[in-house]
Design goal:
The structure is a homotrimer of 115-residue chains. Chain A has 115 residues and is an alpha+beta fold. Chain A has two helices and six strands. In chain A, a hairpin with a 6-residue loop joins β1 and β2. At the A-B interface, β4, α2 and β5 of A face β1, β2, β3 and β6 of B.
Chain lengths: 115, 115, 115
């Protein structure tokens, strides 16, 4: 089974990898927007482009991990997430945990999706 | 390949998703029990029900991530985990890391399992 | 589909599990080296042995999560990572987040790889 890698601007890692009917993808806001709502919108827009490029889409999400710099902002992230994810047919299994993140990132989202 | 989603009470995400012979599931204690031991027991009982409902079971776990609010409680969580997971034929690859969690959650467990 | 489990010295969990063309593996430094660079080198050497033992290898990585005790050390970890991972054909989707870790661990790496 072939492995298809989608390189971004970072060294040593890819934005997405496709293999065996699954797509593994990660996104974070690249513009250091000041609020979690803005960063989440930007992150999800980037994630959607990556998923489509890798042969999947937001309606094919299986598992998601949302890393938040500050869990106090979870409701703010959730409002944007729910607006983006749409109806029940799209909902992945998801966990949201509070971790430190690189640079000015307030949110980072990792997913496994069906191709 | 079809995606089967198992909805819980949360908006925007599922307790479990089944696809391609794999089940992705998450559980946390819903009762805000005061100790890690109690929350772990409750979380694992909920996880087991979700796995069975999604066509898997604790003997089919492949990968687990245990998120703990306080790593000082890892031994307490581990004692309950080892009691639950049983013999060597059940042991998944597992990582345990300390993160912030939502509400009063002291532990949250995410797994990938074979259907 | 059979599940093949690779047991280490820890109770209740495996170093790696192979199933359905995928390998799930975790590694951390076992010697409590004092720097992130040393722990990352040791962790990646252990990970590579585990992957090979489980029928995969570093050229077959799909998804990686790097847990760092202190995100200030990310550049130090990244230098070792990039040296180890080699050319673009090997790069997995990767996320790096700051979490608390067990004992004296400064870094822990979890991967999904193709068999």
């Amino acid at each position: 089974m072939t492995i298809k890698r989608f390189h971004g601007t970072s060294r040593g890692r890819c934005r997405a990898v496709a293999h065996g009917g699954l797509v593994y993808a990660v996104a974070t806001d690249t513009g250091s927007a000041p609020t979690v709502a803005e960063q989440t919108r930007s992150t999800l827009a980037i994630l959607e482009r990556i998923l489509v490029e890798a042969g999947s889409g937001k309606g094919r999400l299986l598992q998601a991990t949302v890393y938040l710099r500050d869990m106090v902002t979870k409701a703010e992230m959730d409002a944007v997430w729910c607006d983006w994810i749409g109806d029940k047919d799209n909902w992945p299994q998801r966990a949201c945990v509070g971790t430190d993140l690189a640079g000015n990132d307030l949110v980072e989202i990792v997913v496994t999706a069906a191709a």
